[in-house]
Amino acid sequence: MCGIFGIVGSKIDEAHLKKATNLLAHRGPNASGFFIEDGVGLGHRRLSIIDLEGGHQPMYNEDGSLCIVFNGEIYNFPELHEQLVSKNHRIKTRSDTETILHAYEEWGEECVDHLRGMFAFAIWDRRAKKLFIARDRFGIKPLFYAEHGGTFYFASEMKAILTDPTMRQEMDEAALACYFSLSYIPGDMTIYKGIRKLLPGHTLTWQNGRGQIRKYWDIEYVPDRGKSEDYFINRFMELFHESIKIHLISDVPLGAFLSGGIDSSAVVAVMSMITDRPVNTFCMGYGGNAGGYLDERGYARMVAERYKTNHKEYEVLPEPEGLLEKIVRSFDEPFADDSTIPSYFVCKIAKENVTVAESGLGGDEAFAGYERYLGFRARALYGRLPHFVRERMIRRFVDSLSERSDGHYTVNHMKRFVRSSSQDDGNAYYGYLTRLNPGIQGSFFSDTSRIGQYLEAPRELILDYFRSVRTEDERDALNRVFYCDVKTYLPEDILAVTDRMSMYHALEVRVPFLDHHLMEFCATIPPEMKMKWFRKKYLLKKALRDILPGDVIDHRKQGFVGPMAQWLKSDLKAYTADALSEKNLKKHGLLNPETIKSILDEHFSGREIHDTLIWSLLVFQKWYDLYMDGNDRPGH
Contact at 8 Å (CB) between 106 and 123? Predict the structure, then answer.
């Protein structure tokens, strides 16, 4: 795992190239390397995982006509190595990096079709004077780019691009509206107008001062109802074992996150079956005033004891001051999933013991694991009630309810459900996702005409993905939801969290559920097998009955998040009230102080949970203070 940076332009400043690249040293503390020639500069920071001696970058082909910098892992590189050698390629190292170079020699830009893994890389073709960059299918690894004054930049993190002193840090107000709507910035947008993300499953070619983007892969949901549950279970377990096995390739110590949920537990169980030594496992718990919040450490211990792992735990406390700045600087833009907090600490303790950790991310998208999937399925029944009953009776009653005192989301989920479920499928699902409910949306920004005009942007983005999935059977509507999440929430939220928090600690995290062969197979499983009788992950749980304790499979899902709703009302209340005071909000004047005060009052009183929105506000304030108010520019 590494950090990459590059410039293609008229003149390369070597000092600037090295300074920008070295800002990514946390991603690759083991070594650095640079390639510089007229109009091109490539920089690399290395975290050594495979071929510790021979994998240094930038790396070249035999005649030096191609140069690559690469971040990620190619799990099928041994097979590709053999295939390329049989085609008379001379490969000198055991590195997967060199395999990509020769794959490009053999297949050109279609080389990405042959790669199985997580990756973001750039190849400079010296003969064609062409830069080719690519990002993996699910967006496990990040890749940002910008064009400014005729110069093209790419980087693993935006901080490297922001080192150009002539580039304005101008806020993209459409991205800001998306951020407060979803708590992350979706699609190819970033908070900066001049910087974009290369979308997952896409490549970009920069030549003669112009860029061309190409989509090389997409997932297709085509249910195969000619197969039985037993067929899907057996084939899934075959592919899952295969994925775990190839994800264990490493020349450095390796372990796994173990949250107590079934996804990470399944990964640990299969790892234990494959390896001949105990797996190193790492788990989080929560301190402070967490109320009745479910702590899954007990379930993690059940799995750890069953498979005799080397198990370590850490307790997270609500101390945001220094951590909030670290989170913001890791993303270089507002990002408000509070799972950054446990992720930060679990990566920290993992790095103290290993260099690579396996994760269970992707299991929810593959097998219908989120609560909102239940809501989406239930709305078909709810919609049969008369409109008067739904809107005038049930909705009014549910809206009047106070939230649970222990911080759980039962009532909050009911409110989100009744407020959205009378709409069509796509808009109903967006209603489950958005953090700005209709009562807040109209007055949230101080200048509604300026920023409020962009509030439909996140809705349209979600609806575009939702509508792009063909469904000929009403049972397949859930596939539209899965596709939306694979294209938005998965890459731009949970995978982004994992990448930034792990790379902050120079830890590589792998996600075997997101092997594209495995996910393509899961896309053929009919939705009614993934969720049966309103039971989430029905098929996955059935598949894992023989390898996991029953209590682990059947307990209520918690997920890798913390008790933020409770912390904001207790341990973090004073900090939150001060950070979001009218005085501090006036620094930028973007938000309506009265609406923000109302949001805080509702949350503190227990009238309605707004934890994600409040955390979004706290993160935004910190980002604005660091990057806009003080105009902090990385490297300066």
Answer: no
631-632-636 Cα angle (round to 5): 125
Residue among 365, 330, 393 nearest 536 (CA):
365
Question: What's the token pair of residue 484?
Answer: 């939306």
Burial of 290 (0-12, 13-18, 19+ CB in 10 A): buried
* Residue 252 DSSP label: S
Q: Does residue 299 sit in helix, strand or coil?
A: helix
pLDDT, tens only, 553-601:
988 765 444 577 778 888 888 899 999 999 999 999 999 999 999 999 9
Q: What is the mean pLDDT of residues 166-177?
A: 92
Structure tokens belonging to residue 116: 């199985």
Question: Which residues have a Cβ under 8 Å from the Cβ of 289 and sit 6 or more positions away?
Answer: 318, 566, 567, 570, 571
The closest alpha carbon to 395, from 355, 436, 437, belongs to: 437
Taking residue 51's Cβ as centre, other Cβ atoms within 10 Å add up to 16
3-state secondary structure 247-267: CCCCCCCEEEECCCCHHHHHH
The answer to which of 176-185, 207-216, 277-286, 354-363 has the lowest mean pLDDT is 277-286
3-class SS at 79? Answer: helix
Cis peptide before 58 (omega within 30 of 0): yes
Helices (H) and strands (E) in the chain, counts: 30, 17
Q: Beta 31-37 vs 40-46: how paired, if at all?
A: antiparallel
Whether the model pTM is above 0.85: yes
- Beta-strand ranges (E) seen in 9-127 are 31-37, 40-46, 59-60, 66-74, 117-125
Distance CA(205)–CA(200), nearest Å, equals 15
CA dihedral (151, 155, 158, 164) in degrees, to 10, reads: -30
Which of the residues 2, 111, 283, 522 is marked catalytic? 2
Distance of alpha carbon 586 from alpha carbon 290, whole angstroms: 32
If residue 213 lies in a helix (H) or strand (E), which one and from where to where?
strand 210-215
Q: Which residue has the tokens 């604005």?
A: 624
Rounded CA-CA distance 21/266 in Å is 37
* Token representation of residue 262: 């079934």
Question: Which pLDDT tens digit goes with each residue over 502-538?
Answer: 999 999 999 999 999 999 999 999 999 999 988 999 9
Residues contacting residue 424 through CB under 8 Å, at least 6 positions apart: none
Instruction: Please give the structure tokens belonging to residue 240.
Output: 């899952």
Is there a catalytic annotation at residue 2? Answer: yes
